[in-house]
Amino acid sequence: MKVLVLHSHPVEESFGAALHRQTIESLKRAGHEVDDCNLYAEDFDPVLSRHDRVIYHDYPDNTEAVKSYVERLQRTEALVIVTPVWNFGFPAILKGYFDRVWLPGVSFELVDGKVRSKLQHIRKLGAVLTYGADPFRAFVAGNPPKKIVKRVLRAQIKPFAPVVFLAHYDMNRSTEASRGRFLLKVDQQMQRF
To answer: Is 45's pLDDT higher than 90?
Structure first.
């Protein structure tokens, strides 16, 4: 299976970078073909310019500035997101990826005024996230990243697509042992992905 891994950890020596490496290694060991889309390393521009917004609905003109990313998305059969959670949301570079690449004509089309997914070829979805907050605080805040993955993105591909959601909460008080356990969990889940 072709798996697109969206990675948005900016620091190469971080635990997030270790999660990224583990995710890639585990998916490859499971026999998947991995397209590693490291947004920071690729210097992805997350800004939806005024011009981009003016032509937002004009497919295929709306894809010209991000054509290579659109092609990668259209070729994938599964998507895995590896990212930190900042202020109960995705980092701007990842949010910008969704705003600039998941465009009308690419991720959806309007048919008789109703939205129809154009990402039905994506059969699986995964997320490997790190939170500074503990699980209770994330719950009280409504845990928007979890809802985006398990509801919004899933609905944009296939409403009943299998989702693997892995989160290491309370990174502010994490230990070597907690990080090691989470890396092992990521390894096991991605090998079964």
So the answer is: yes
